[in-house]
Amino acid sequence: MIQWPGKLALLIALYSPTGHADSLRPLQPLIDAAEENAVLLLEAGTYSGPVVIDKPLTLDGQGRARIDAGGKGSVIVIDTDGAIVRNLHLTNSGESHNDIDSGVQVRGRFNVVSDNVIDNCLFGVDLQQSENNIVRRNRISSKPFELGTRGDAIRLWYSFDNKITDNTITDSRDMVVWYSANNTIARNTSSNSRYSLHFMYSRYNLVEGNRYYNNTVGVFLMYSDGVVLKNNHIAHASGSTGVGIGFKETSDVTVEGNRILYCATGLYIDVSPFQPDTINAFANNLIAYNGIGIRFLNDWKGNEFRGNRFIDNLTQVTVSSGKTANRNIWEGNHWSDYEGFDENHDGVGDTPYELYVYADRLWQDVPYAQYFKGSPVLEVMDFLERLAPFTEPHLLVRDEHPSKHRALVQVEEEFEPRDSLDILRESLGR
Predict the structure, then answer these.
(1) In CATH, what number is assigned to the domain containing residue 152?
(2) Residue 8 falls within a domain, yes or no?
């Protein structure tokens, strides 16, 4: 075990640029001098970075030590297997996107990055070609840049079997998982960022129990098959691109037990599932108070919706191509606008739930008309069209056995309900 002796700290301070013991103590010599598997317990103070850990050891700041990279490079680079970095305040990385200047860069296996505060770092934790690492209970924020020029809070690139858990992310850009498989992303919280979680060409990952709110997008999966999303809470993804969970050419996904609230669009589905003979299964999700519950970009099939609750979305389902979503399976979902009865009290509606497209198609075909969705003018047009249709309406959705069980919705205080028209206006950037 290596600790800072008080006299040595004072001696180094005499040669430091600031001349006092609490600033920029050299840390790399301690790491270089440590034996493998040593435990370095840092005393309170500020240490100079960047530093490289190239052997298995434990670097523990005990919640009192700060490492400042001086605006150059990454604060810590872990280029080994079996290192532990914990209880540190990591700050002031460089600003290079090309070099991925980070709080911590990981290049190895079986490393642990835990219980750190990472701020004023362009990227938070970056893993490249790294396996079986743990990133947990860190508090991460980027530099105070415009949203698109910040770095990603956590980044996985060609990295497998890692566990990303219990982190708190704010004021960053994205969390990205690219070309990576078999990772667990659980119980993280992300707010005031762009993509809470973005998958690209990444298969068989588990996303469970996360809380994503006040981001532009909750979760977006692109070309990423076999992903499981369970029991996540996603809210207030608004603005012109606001999406709770989005899918593009993504197959064989399981979406279960999620709560998607107050988003411009709850679910966005684009050519998914893409692989032949696969399905995407949506079960027991709460999709409530969104501008649009589900938006299909085109007339597609292969999605199964069972036991979901669609509550007070301004529009429950829409298909941008103007055709139908009825080539998918709709079974036993609860629809807040269902007008049927349940005379035998078995919890199933006596008649199917049917959603037709009438004159309100106008707001879907004419972008500027979206601003008036929910207004008296369009509502009257829709009522007259339903009363005496002058064209044959399109059957958009048919649920043969809609659920009549009472849908209990409990919403936390930070997700207070807003008027659906306000959500729609946000989605148009008004």
Answers:
(1) 2.160.20
(2) no
* DSSP structure string for 22-50: TS-EE-HHHHHHSPTT-EEEPPSEEEE--
Query: Measured between alpha carbons, how far is 324 from 161 in angstroms, rounded to an integer?
Result: 39
pTM: 0.83
Q: Which residues of 295-319 are buried (b: 16+ CB within 10 A; e: fewer)?
A: bbbeebebbebbbbbbbbbbbbbbb
- Write out the DSSP string of 176-235: EEES-BS-EEES-EEESSSEEEEEES--S-EEES-EEESSSEEEEEES--S-EEES-EEE
DSSP 355-370: EEE-GGGHHHHSGGGG
- The answer to whether position 269 is within a domain reads yes
DSSP letters, 76-117, are EEE-SSS-EEEEEEEE-----TTTT-EEEEE-SBS-EEES-E
Task: Report d(CA 166, CA 154) in Å as an integer.
Answer: 12
- Residue labelled with tokens 């700041």: 61
Domain hosting residue 286, numbered range? 49-427
Residue 342 within a domain: yes
**pLDDT tens for residues 37-79?**
999 999 999 999 999 999 999 999 999 999 999 999 999 999 9
Domain count, the chain: 1
Per the CB < 8 A criterion, the answer to whether 103 and 69 are in contact is no
